[in-house]
Each structure stands twice: as structure tokens, then as C-alpha cells.
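RECORD TYPE: inverse folding
INPUT: C-alpha cells
STRUCTURE:
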């Protein structure tokens, strides 16, 4: 695929739960300072994007930060990056699937979510070209709808509720939750073997997708606060549909505007889920090739050149998460894993001798610190659960390596 398709895949991976799920809990944490939290999340994401782009140019192969960490820092940091990515993105897949179910089939959301995972895994098994095409179509339909919601929000009567006070901790936690919505550019970095002219197209695609998404999310946050107010936004699970009630009197969320928003939510979630399934499969492939995951996951389809065993395993794990959790829980899990992943990306970029203009060392340092700070401001349950999952992965790897040494 070329640069435009790669950019579209990145936008499709980012525009999902960030637009339709995360703004409500982020507003509960940050209150009227929600736009500041969006900007902070975007700044950390820019640090990460620049580091990831520099590393992707140096190592244009599938695997992302798992590969970069192994090459620049050693096997253990590489494993932590890969394990954090795989576990975090498995949670992201579940979040996107549940978002689809909540909008498309309220009352039967989990059944719809499982069906979406099965359908999109099947699409992905037919190869990256079809994945890119489907994502491009979805993004072209969703972006105009989000622009419509922004216009309706800004032209609605201003909410009269009092502002919700928030401290620095609330803003940081909101930024950590919102970061979940910015993490899609990792999908581009894991596609090094599929993108034409990766030295030119990968950096441009990462930065272009991030820029479009940051502007969109900031405008969306401002319009939601204008129409619903901090308290109203924090108290809803479907804020974009609620804007229709405020901004389109006599029709509201049950009319044509609400139907369009529901369709956009479903399509955005499907677009993100489609990109995520492919990214998890390719990182699992790289880890299996490196001996950090079972080698059966490295099997490639001869006809379509996709890691079909890894993709099927992804679908099974995501299905289990869908049945055991809710959307906000998996968002917290995902944010922690992905923030750890990017902390290692920034530390890896610090070691580069030759670096592009857009990735100076000081920016890599800011990105590493920012990721770690945001990760540990997430809700305690999310932090403790993900620390336990990561520790379990480290323990299993240590046992396997010890067994291999004894066998040798």
C-alpha cells in the first residue's frame, strides 16, 4: 500500500472509541478542563509518533516497538514492549467491538460484538490490501458525520450547568484515558513490510494521521462541552447521540440525526477493530519468530501472506474478553499496555545515532516520561491488573528461557 492508504489505516485505527466512548469518563475525571487533557494526550502522542517514525524508518519490518526494543535495548525490553502491545491491543479490540455492539444492538451488544470480531477477522485473513480498502471506505463515511456532530454541538444552546472542578490528577487521568484514542498510528509502524517506500511513507502517514485526529478530537471535545456541559457529558454513555437531543429540537437522537450518529459509531468502531486485529496479528508474528510467543503463531498463509494462526488466536482471546468485561474496563487495560509500549519506543529512539529532524533526543525523553506518568495515573484497578498480566508474561518467559538453556 502507498502513503495515502497507510494514513487512512492510521486514522481508521484512531477514530473509534475516542469519539464515541472515551469522552464521557475523561470528562468525569477532568471536568471543564477536558480540552486541556485532549491537548496533553495529543502532545504525548506526537512525541511517540516522532519516535516511532524514526525507528520505523531505521527498521522497516513488521513488529513495531517489539522489534525496535530488541534491536536497540535488548531482548527483555523488546519482550516487554511486545507483550504490553499485544495485551493492550487485545483489550482495544474488545473495546472497539463492544462500542459497535452498544450502538448497533443495544441490549444484545455482546452478541453483536462477537459477530463483528468473527466477521472482521475473516476479512483480515484475505490480506492487507482488502483491509486497507475497507478501512478507507469506513473512514470516508465517518469523518463527515463527526464534522456534522461538531457543527450541531457548537450551534446548540450553551449548557448552563456549573463547571466541574478538576485537579492535576484528574487532567492526567483523563489524558491517559484519551490516549487510548490516539494510539492507532502504531498500526502503521507494524506494517513496514506492506508499505511501499517505507522510509518516506511511514513517517508521513504516522504524523498525518495523528494531526487529523488531534484536530478532530479537540473540536469534538469543545463542542460536547458547549452542548452538554461537563456534568452532562460525564453522566452519559452516548454523548454524540445526546448532542442531537440538544441541537435538533423535535427530532433528537431518535430521528435521522441520531440514526446517522449511530451508523457512524458502528462504522468507526468497525474500522478501528479491523486495523487493530491486523496489527496484533503482525506483532504476534514477530514475537513468535523471535521465540517470545509459541512458534505456531508464526505460520503464514501462502495465498494471502497473513499470519493466520495469530489472527485466529487474537479472535479467540478477544471473544473471551468480550464475555468477561465491559467497555470502560478494557479501555483502562489498553491505555496502560500501550503507554508502556510507547515508553519503550521513546527510550529506544534515544539510542539512535542518526535521527531525522522531527525526532530530537529531548522529545524522546519527554515522551518516555510522559508515557510513564500517564500510565500510573489510570484507575488503580487497571494499573494493578495490567502489572499482574505483564509480570505473568515475564515469569513465563523466564521459565521458558531457563528450560531452553538446560536443554541445550
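DESIGNED SEQUENCE:
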Amino acid at each position: 500500500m502507498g502513503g495515502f492508504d497507510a494514513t487512512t489505516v492510521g486514522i481508521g485505527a484512531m477514530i473509534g472509541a475516542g469519539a464515541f466512548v472515551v469522552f464521557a469518563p475523561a470528562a468525569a475525571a477532568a471536568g471543564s478542563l477536558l480540552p486541556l487533557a485532549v491537548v496533553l494526550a495529543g502532545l504525548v502522542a506526537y512525541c511517540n509518533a516522532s519516535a516511532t517514525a524514526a525507528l520505523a524508518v531505521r527498521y522497516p519490518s513488521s513488529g513495531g516497538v517489539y522489534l525496535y526494543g530488541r534491536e536497540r535495548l535488548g531482548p527483555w525490553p523488546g519482550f516487554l514492549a511486545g507483550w504490553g502491545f499485544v495485551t493492550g491491543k487485545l483489550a482495544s479490540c474488545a473495546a472497539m467491538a463492544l462500542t459497535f455492539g452498544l450502538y448497533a444492538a443495544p441490549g444484545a451488544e455482546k452478541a453483536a460484538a462477537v459477530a463483528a470480531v468473527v466477521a472482521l477477522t475473516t476479512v483480515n485473513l484475505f490480506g492487507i490490501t482488502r483491509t486497507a480498502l475497507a478501512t478507507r471506505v469506513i473512514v470516508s463515511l465517518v469523518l463527515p458525520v463527526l464534522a456534522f456532530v461538531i457543527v450541531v454541538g457548537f450551534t446548540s444552546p450553551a449548557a448552563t450547568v456549573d463547571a466541574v472542578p478538576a485537579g492535576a490528577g484528574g487532567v492526567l487521568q483523563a489524558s491517559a484515558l484519551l490516549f487510548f484514542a490516539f494510539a492507532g498510528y502504531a498500526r502503521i509502524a507494524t506494517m513496514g513490510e506492506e508499505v511501499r517506500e517505507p522510509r518516506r511513507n511511514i513517517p508521513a502517514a504516522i504524523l498525518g494521521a495523528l494531526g487529523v485526529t488531534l484536530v478532530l478530537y479537540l473540536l469534538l471535545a469543545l463542542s460536547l462541552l458547549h452542548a452538554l456541559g461537563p456534568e452532562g457529558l460525564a453522566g452519559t454513555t452516548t454523548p454524540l447521540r445526546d448532542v442531537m437531543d440538544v441541537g435538533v429540537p423535535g427530532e433528537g437522537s431518535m430521528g435521522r440525526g441520531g440514526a446517522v450518529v449511530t451508523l457512524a459509531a458502528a462504522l468507526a468502531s468497525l474500522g478501528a477493530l479491523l486495523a487493530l486485529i491486523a496489527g496484533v496479528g503482525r506483532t504476534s508474528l514477530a514475537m513468535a519468530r523471535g521465540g517470545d510467543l509459541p512458534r505456531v503463531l508464526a505460520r503464514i498463509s501462502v495465498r494471502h501472506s497473513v499470519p493466520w494462526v495469530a489472527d485466529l488466536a487474537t479472535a479467540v482471546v478477544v471473544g473471551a474478553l468480550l464475555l468477561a468485561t465491559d467497555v470502560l474496563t478494557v479501555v483502562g487495560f489498553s491505555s496502560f499496555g500501550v503507554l508502556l509500549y510507547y515508553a519503550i519506543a521513546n527510550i529506544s529512539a534515544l539510542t539512535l545515532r542518526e535521527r531525522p529532524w522531527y525526532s530530537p533526543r529531548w522529545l524522546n525523553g519527554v515522551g518516555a516520561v510522559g508515557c510513564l506518568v500517564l500510565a500510573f495515573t489510570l484507575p488503580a484497578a487497571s494499573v494493578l491488573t495490567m502489572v499482574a498480566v505483564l509480570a505473568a508474561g515475564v515469569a513465563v518467559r523466564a521459565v521458558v528461557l531457563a528450560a531452553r538453556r538446560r536443554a541445550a
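NOTES: The chain is about 75% helix and 0% strand.
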